[in-house]
């Protein structure tokens, strides 16, 4: 049975367009590992967190050991999954802070990537990522679409290069546009998942 890691990052909970799209497609699915990064946020990268992720477990405070254990859990969830379904609404032209924090905790040298003489090499292989990105306006084919380049770069950095984007745009541009965008995104997402 295929396992899907679902990462939700919208701060809007049940009112979130990205969460609603994800929930719709997962209604009949099994083998789901779900992590709501807004409802249960992971720590923000600071000096203590960076030390926890790079230090020796013997030299860490109890708080830092908890961060390292959480990072290990997040990475194990990622390694266990066959595919990753990420909800990435656009907030001020970028992913939510909650999703960025997740990447900060799983991007670990020697664990999810390694440095080589030819540059970094991702260690998480044979995974597919599906990104559900929702936006109030139209940004897909414009320079404002920084989410696609950021997520493609971050996922590729850890070894995930099979990445598909599902867009639901124009959600604040009238009921007809929003309904059409949701229907198209739902159909595409159902086909991919």
From TrEMBL:
It comes from Vibrio japonicus. Belongs to the azoreductase type 1 family. The keyword Transmembrane does not apply. The gene is azoR. It is an enzyme of class 1 (oxidoreductase). Its cofactor is FMN. FMN binds at residues 10, 16-18, 90-93, 134-137. Homodimer. Residues 3-191 form the Flavodoxin-like fold domain. It comes from the Bacteria. Also exhibits azoreductase activity. Catalyzes the reductive cleavage of the azo bond in aromatic azo compounds to the corresponding amines. Quinone reductase that provides resistance to thiol-specific stress caused by electrophilic quinones. The keyword NAD applies. InterPro entries: Flavodoxin_fold, Flavoprotein-like_sf, FMN-dep_NADH:Q_OxRdtase_AzoR1, NADH:quinone_OxRdtase_FMN_depd. It catalyses: N,N-dimethyl-1,4-phenylenediamine + anthranilate + 2 NAD(+) = 2-(4-dimethylaminophenyl)diazenylbenzoate + 2 NADH + 2 H(+); 2 a quinone + NADH + H(+) = 2 a 1,4-benzosemiquinone + NAD(+). This is FMN dependent NADH:quinone oxidoreductase. Keywords: Flavoprotein, FMN, NAD, Oxidoreductase. Its EC number is 1.6.5.-, 1.7.1.17. Pfam families: Flavodoxin_2.
